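Recap quiz, item 2
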Amino acid sequence: MLPRGRPRALGAAALLLLLLLLLIGFFLLGWDPECERLEPDGRAGDLGCSRCPLTPRVPSDGRLRGASALHGDPLAGHGVHNHSACNPQPPLPPKCELLHVAIVCAGYNSSREVITLVKSMLFYRRNPLHLHLVTDTVARNILETLFRTWMVPALGVSFYDAEQLKPQISWIPNKHYSGLYGLMKLVLPGVLPPGLTRVIVLDTDVTFASDIAELWALFAHFSGVILLLLDQLRQVGWEQMWKLTARRELLTLTATSLADQDIFNAVIKERPELLQPLPCVWNLQLSDHTLAERCYSEAADLKVIHWNSPKKVRVKNKHAEFFRNFYLTFLGYDGNLLRRELFGCPSQPPPEAEQLQRALAQLDEEDACFEFRQQRLTVHRVHITFLPHKPPPPRPHDVTLVAQLSMDRLQMLEALCRHWPGPMSLALYLTDAEAQQFLHFVEASPVLSARQDVAYHVVYREGPLYPVNQLRNVALAQALTPYVFLSDIDFLPAYSLYDYLRASIEQLELGGRRKAALVVPAFETLRYRFSFPSSKAELLALLDAGSLYTFRYHEWPQGHAPTDYARWREAQAPYRVQWAADYEPYVVVPRDCPRYDPRFVGFGWNKVAHIVELDAQEFELLVLPEAFTIHLPHAPSLDISRFRSSSAYRDCLQALKEEFHQDLSRRYGAAALKYLTALQQPRSPA
Amino acid sequence: MLPRGRPRALGAAALLLLLLLLLIGFFLLGWDPECERLEPDGRAGDLGCSRCPLTPRVPSDGRLRGASALHGDPLAGHGVHNHSACNPQPPLPPKCELLHVAIVCAGYNSSREVITLVKSMLFYRRNPLHLHLVTDTVARNILETLFRTWMVPALGVSFYDAEQLKPQISWIPNKHYSGLYGLMKLVLPGVLPPGLTRVIVLDTDVTFASDIAELWALFAHFSGVILLLLDQLRQVGWEQMWKLTARRELLTLTATSLADQDIFNAVIKERPELLQPLPCVWNLQLSDHTLAERCYSEAADLKVIHWNSPKKVRVKNKHAEFFRNFYLTFLGYDGNLLRRELFGCPSQPPPEAEQLQRALAQLDEEDACFEFRQQRLTVHRVHITFLPHKPPPPRPHDVTLVAQLSMDRLQMLEALCRHWPGPMSLALYLTDAEAQQFLHFVEASPVLSARQDVAYHVVYREGPLYPVNQLRNVALAQALTPYVFLSDIDFLPAYSLYDYLRASIEQLELGGRRKAALVVPAFETLRYRFSFPSSKAELLALLDAGSLYTFRYHEWPQGHAPTDYARWREAQAPYRVQWAADYEPYVVVPRDCPRYDPRFVGFGWNKVAHIVELDAQEFELLVLPEAFTIHLPHAPSLDISRFRSSSAYRDCLQALKEEFHQDLSRRYGAAALKYLTALQQPRSPA
């Protein structure tokens, strides 16, 4: 649950840049003489002044850890001392003023971390925000998808390519990857749009405990100065300054590397007037360090908590809990709740959001299937590749196993990994809190954490019905191999299936010569403990012994009858079968196959419709003689229970089927007739 | 997810009482002339003034819905108008000032509602709080347990018996139950401790969106006046006043009933000077009503959201979402995160909390079993009878089924209800968010919502290991019948078992004459779909057919071997069996039987130890010839998987066993030797 450690440099540097932007301004702040009177010792004021919601408090000798290089500097010391008491709060920016935030974010883990920061910022914010994200390709893919699907009103996002910045800083020797990204803060002024005059730069490991507007207000109070300074930064001034300093340092420095903080400190050492201490409440760094202690003893005024060292959260300290709890609050916070309009400040929603609103508005609440239609329209937040992932090397006949699951199927993952040594793309339907449990589950499992080729995509829960086909489409869209095996989470494939499929694809010249779907015959066991057959021969033996059945033989034979199990027993070569009503085999198809129809939510007909689509697009159905997959028993899902118990549920499913067929005829004309005819003798799925 | 509706009276009255307490004070508030200049029309000020954190904003003709009786009153109108702009914020109370809150809460549902209010209050609060709860016995039982186990620092709770207040108000005709509790607010001044000078009175359906200290500050600003007023209220003044008015109203009133709000309004009508309009941000009532509209268009300053009508949350209104999200935020908020110390204001923890701290401090983090010992010491928040419950009528031989479960076993509940028509006491291990899902699950199930005799006790999740025995002890402690059937959630008892057990208990004169545990033989099916045997004969047939087995026959026979299934086949009468190592039968015992040993967390030995305890206390073990229960297959729990995979886990279990036996010998001396000897040949559970 606790944030991973990162180099301290990353931590302090961001705030230091902020300090530079805050240059001088602090001295323009007056302070409330009454408070001075109240607290000659600079402490007693807790009673009155320290509680003014926006008082920047600085413990008498408190200043940023990042600024400690300046400890001897009387000016800073003086400045700090003078302002240890209350200052009148600068007025908050107008409700509709757009606040700008810049974050450097690279890789899978930082992309996860930054979400918690963003949630805490959104929870307290009252202003429109614009995020300027400097990202590598990994983070960009993840965050673009996330923010597009999150659809938070009054939140803008721009991306900047970190790759292009590397040359400007890569000449600086630095130990690690993250160090390089830390250094990018040095060049931000040059990267951000020229029109942008102010920006708050944050690390990914920061949690807000108040409205970011209060931080922004520290700009507003002396914005003229900031503008001026930012211009300077933009011209040679700053760029020259830090580069020269860095080079000079490199000559003398014994250290083999420079972190951005070292450079900031060095620059400041030469130009002390550049330093503007920020009240410690604006960068509370938890540690045994007395500075932090002093500061968080006032933590009622806490604004920002900064998680920039792993040790800190393990510190045996009764306060540690307080900070951890803030972090955990937003770690598990339901991000859907942040999709709320600002007040007195209407934002222009993105086109998709408007479309969605219109579509939802058109729904008829009296319609018996309202729930289904609403669920179908729901846009779920999607966090692709939630965990670190190594994309498979490009291989012409490679296959990705595609499936979806929720929390109650987690225990299938280890077995699945043992049965399928190839790449997988799995969509998980989780709440924000469950996503964290899932993270720990994987970390605790040697089997799972050993696998780099399994991509987990978190789709956040919303609405009463399980959006099975939307989940499948997310997993399918993220598959990176030319072929996909469309499976379900409660099936275990034959140990040999991965190799066998790749061989078959090559041999049958799939994709290239022929448009085909390879059928993997499905079986089931009703027993919990059974030894998985290591070959087709063993499987047939178990079948004859009655400890295995063809899948859903008892309650829904038509689902797989067309596979023709009798023929499969004898088959030595792949054989073609014809589509028939209600056929829902597990198939291997090219990645660019048709998507699943999202109108089918909950239980029933979600795969059937997809196979109809394949047939309509004239995919051959080829059954593979050596392939098999086996369904393990499990408690019935709540959706199946609902289906069995509720006739309304069944009626809606029937209605959705008919609409699906109308669409089919529209798209395929006469060719779609056979499906409609098939529907005329409806059998309801078990 | 949305709060249930309640009579509007309850809603407005609480705030109205607050108004009375706020009497006059408002007029002592000056206002910021600059703001007046900024906003001649009293609205433009949104930009600057409306953002002062504690600005009480009142739309130009805005006042409390509850006060609308006064619409014509020029004085109030004037007061309101004058103060539509910004007022300087009264200073917040000192960090350590104790704030008092009074709430009337009765019944199961209000007890649930009030938790969300308390969470929102604790999330934003910085001061020590004391809750004065006027409750009926149901709410008191629930809330006493909850707050005792919640252990929130700097939170005091006092209970006042609503029963005793009824006579003072029951003479007032009123339509419903809740109405009677609403009226209790009239007599609060007499109920609360004489020393108590100020209190904020809240409804259970309120959600805070800011620090309650800001509301308290409105007192502080003119506390002298308040003190004075409260004294008046306490002496005949108020009591006479409202009673006389009420009686007078009753003579003339056409209405057949008086709600507390009617009385407040009537009093105010006669004594207009008593009214002090409160800024609408302090009682934001969501509706299509323009007052609310005006107010929440400024909702950036929102302080309190008041859910006092079901309609409001369904209002088609883009703002509705905003308010609902605040409510849902705290509905699903992890209450454990609120167990945090206040800053700069150390609170005296309750003795249990101190003990716990000491015990935790003594744990050795290097100990391989640290996780187990920590989990064992964890005090989980407990919410007993989470849903409405009708205690069973006292019957001398009645039996309650006792079991525990987590989210992944919910789907067992309906089947269990069909198999066991008697009372049940079930402990559920859930997060706050899961508890809400569970609530909806029950509401959506006709079978479950039809049962009033099933008590659900929510134990909130904390820590990595499943606290199986703590859960069992919670369910056991809440069983209300003289006997309990100690079962597990994945077992379905014979349809006849409930009746058969009661008959056997009577016949064997259990409890009275003999100290015995009745053994219910356990079986298992490995198949998902099977027809449950309706008699012992049918069961034996299935057993012979190999579609049933004696429980865990394959991997852990010694767990039930002593039940002697061979003998059971033939048995016509109950027969006695002897304890043997690792015996863990399902038994029926008097409610006051020994508790489960909480040191056994996660998987393994948790029932075994309990049976040892029963044997050590010389309970006879009597097997019932017609009783049986059948285990259904399910995916292995994560704890079992961990047990099987981790040797450290097994070693810890071994260590715990040994400590358990040392305790046994300490308590039972020589008699306990046999258990120790049995342990010498350890077999590890499967």
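DSSP finds 29 helices and 20 strands in chain B.
Chain B touches chain A through 55 residues (CB under 8 Å).
End of item.
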